[in-house]
Amino acid sequence: MNVPVHLTVNGHDHHLDLDPRTSVLDALRDHLGVMSVKKGCDHGQCGACTVLVDGERILSCLGLAASYDGAQVVTAEGLGTPGNLHPLQQAFLDHDGLQCGYCTPGQVCSAVGMLREVRRGMPSHVTPDVQGAPHLTDAEIRERMSGNLCRCGAYVNIVAAIRDAQHADLAPAEPRPGGQR
What we know:
Order of helices and strands: EEHEEEHHHHH
Largest sheet: 5 strands, mixed
Strand order of the largest sheet: 2-1-5-3-4
Number of helices: 6
CATH superfamily of the largest domain: [2Fe-2S]-binding domain
CATH architecture of the largest domain: Orthogonal Bundle
Number of strands: 5
Shape: globular
Helix content: 25-40%
CATH topology of the largest domain: DNA polymerase, domain 1
Strand content: 5-15%
Number of domains: 2
């Protein structure tokens, strides 16, 4: 028996009829054709499937779509447009924070979510003073991004990109009229 699920993905409403076991990842890729979300390990271990749901980063392979009924989902392709890249997308390009690119959509979404967490004062495992505001050192960035793996080893450039974009506006670009990004 399927269940109705309403998701707003990259600013566009979608009403789906899904098996209750369908993950957010499979709903995006298999039912909506959103290919920027990558299926890496399908076990929550690599971070390639990271998206933003209601502004928070999640591993979309682990979340059931039915659990996110009514949610706002933003993928890497929903952050910016080719002519107006999101500041983190631009920083990844400027710092050569990618090689094969397979992990990049998840890395970028995770970085947006991570910077939002820092701005809210959320400490990490390496934050020296959990009572004070976190200072975004390279060690903080590495710890906070440790759930996103890069098989190519572009970590040094990914950290540099995030450091460079840490003060940027983290809101996604507005969707284009007519449903095109």
